[in-house]
Amino acid sequence: MRFFGAGKVSSAPFFCARSCARIRKNTRSALSRRALLVASACLLYLFSVVFHAGRVLPRDNKSSGTGGGFKSPGLHEDPRHGPPAAHIGHDSAQRGSLRASSKYNVVYITLRSKRQKPAIMRGTVRPKSRKKPVARKNARIGGNATHGIEQMETEEWRQITAFYKETGRIWGRDTEQSWTVSPKGRGGAAGSYSAIRIYSPEAPPWLSAADVEALRFLADCSIAAVRHVSASPNRRLLLFESVTAEARKARGESGPIAGDRTCPGRCGIIKRHVDTSEVFAFHLDRILGLNRSLPAVCRKFTFLRDSQPNPAVLWDSSLASADSNLQSSIQLTWGSYQRSLKHKCWHKGVAPRPEWGCSSIHHYEWSKLALFDFLLQVYNRLDRNCCGFKPRKEDICVKLGQHLECEDQDSVGLVHIVHRKHDPRRLVFIDNKGYFDRDEDNLDFKLLQGIKELPEQAMSILRSHHLRERLLQSLFLDRVYWESQGGRQGIEKLIDVIERRAKVLLTYTNAHGIKIVPMNS
C-alpha cells in the first residue's frame, strides 16, 4: 500500500508537466492562426486601397501619348482658379496625392501681398483715383462769359491780394478749387471732384440734406469775389461770393434771401488758419443733436499769402444784427444770465415776469450752450475774463488784461449771444473756436455754473461710447480738414481730448445732481 501510494505521488509532477506543455503548444498554435488572420486582413485592405487609388489616379498626357487623359494641375496652376497659387503639403508624395484630388479638398494660399486698407467707416468707401483738373489760364470767372473778367495770373493775384485788405472789391478766381456745384456735389468740369467725401447713397443721419449741400458749396464753389464786410464796429470779416451781384442781375435772378445787401447770392466767411477747430465744432454739434452751429469746412484759398487751409463758415443773413462791441444781438450780463437760469425763462411756454429780467432765449438753450462750450472749452462766450481757469499768455483775456478783473462778475457782459430774426427763442452758436490743449485739471467749470438740466439726447451719446465712431465718420467727409490734422492719427488725438472731458462732465453731473431731461430742438 505504501509502495503504491508512493508511486502515485511520484507520477503527479510528470503529469502536470505534460499538461502544461500541451497547453503552451495549443496556445502558440492559436496565436499563430490569429496573427495569420490579421495579416491576411491587412493585406486584403492594402490591396483594395492600392487598387482603388490606381483607378482614381489620372494619367499624364506626356506619359501615355494619347488624348484620353488630362493634365493634372501642378503646384502653381489650377484649372479652376487661374492665378498662381501655393499648395500646402508635407512632402512630394503628399503633394502628388493632393494634386490628384484637387477637385475635392485642395487648399490654396495666394502669394501676392494684400494691400493695407484704411479703416472702413459706415457710409463711406475708398474713393476712386481721379485726375486733378488743370486750371486753364485766361478762363472766365465761373465759366460764364457775362462776367467779363479774365482770370489773373497766380503771382499777380497774390501781389495785389492781402488777407487784411480794408477797402475795395477784389475780383478773381481760386485756381485750385474752381469747380462749380452740382446737385450731387460733383464739379461741373470734366474730371473734377468734390472735396466733401460722400461716396455712399446717403450721408450720416446726423447731417441733414441742407447741411450736406452747404458743405459742398463751401468746399467746391467757384469764388467770384472777395471783400471785407463789417460785422461790428470793431470786427471785420473776409467774405467770398460764388456769383457776383452784377451777374445775377444780368441773368434776372434774385438772391435766395431778399433784402440782403451784404451778400445778394450765396456767400461764405473765410477765417484764420488757427480757427480750424470750428470745423470740428460743427460736426460735434450735429452729432450731439444740438443743431445750433453754422456749417463749416476747411478749404485752401490760393489767393491768401500763407496758402494754408482756412475754415470757411456759411454766411447766414437771417441772424439778428449785432452792432454792439460784445458782438451779441442780446444785451445780457453774467448777473442777469444767472437770474434767468433760476427763473427758467419761457419754460413750458410760461411767459416770464418783467421783474425777472429775462431775455427772449428759451431756458433750455443755455443748457445746450453750456454743454457745447464745456466740451470744446469755448470760454469767450460765457467767461471772457478767464475767471474759471488758469489762462496762458496766448489767451486773449491775458493780452487785454481782462483776467485781472474777476472780482465783480455780475456786470460783465456775455459775448456772441446771437439768435435769428425769425426765431428769437433759439441761440445760434457762432465763433466756436475750441481749445484742445487744456488739461483735465484746468477746465473751466464756470461754464456750467447755474445749469440744473442737460439735454438727454446729447448725454445719451456721451454715455453710449459711440462718440468716437461718429466723429470719425463725420470728420472723414471733410478731406482738407482730415489731412490738415494729420489724418486719422491726428483726429484720434482730438477725439481723445473730447472723450476725457465727457467723462469729467458725466462725473460732474452725478456729483451735482443735474437732471437729464429731453429737450426738443
UniProtKB/TrEMBL annotation:
Keywords: Golgi apparatus, Membrane, Transmembrane, Transmembrane helix. The keyword Ribosomal protein does not apply. The keyword Transmembrane helix applies. Signal peptide: none annotated. GO terms for cellular component: Golgi apparatus. It holds the Pfam family FAM198. Residues 58-98 are annotated as: Disordered. It is found in: Endomembrane system; Golgi apparatus. InterPro entries: FAM198. The chain crosses the membrane at residues 35-54. Its main location: membrane. Belongs to the GASK family. This is Golgi associated kinase 1B.
